[in-house]
Design brief:
This protein is mainly beta. 0% of the residues lie in helices and 54% in strands. The protein has no helices and eleven strands. Strands 2, 4, 5, 6, 9, 10 and 11 form a seven-stranded mixed β-sheet that branches. It has a four-stranded antiparallel β-sheet with strand order 1-3-8-7, with no helix packed on it. The chain is elongated. The relative contact order is 0.33.
Length: 119
Amino acid sequence: QVQLVESGGGLVQPGGSLRLSCTPSERIGGLNTRGWYRQAPGKQREFLARIGGDGRTNYADSILGRFSISRDTAWNKVYLEMNNLQPDDTAVYYCRAEWWIGQRSYVSWGQGTQVTVSS
């Protein structure tokens, strides 16, 4: 099973920016998508952004215009650029990968990286 490792979280002041990275333990070939989610204390995990192998992206309305998902040219690492961060963005951020081999799909989640927005 592919392991995902997130990095780039930390403490940032309101209005600041962070760039999260998601690195798989091995290259995920074939048809696959990558996504970013977050979970704030006492809340359910929520979808933020997704990028497909064709480069198409989609975003949750709550972060549209402030966050941007991208990938490296080798389609290995995936990033989440976060701008104008606000205290409500404080959460654990998770990377997710889904891929298909034949008719079967596989999903892997990272362990999460903490993002805290506070002055």
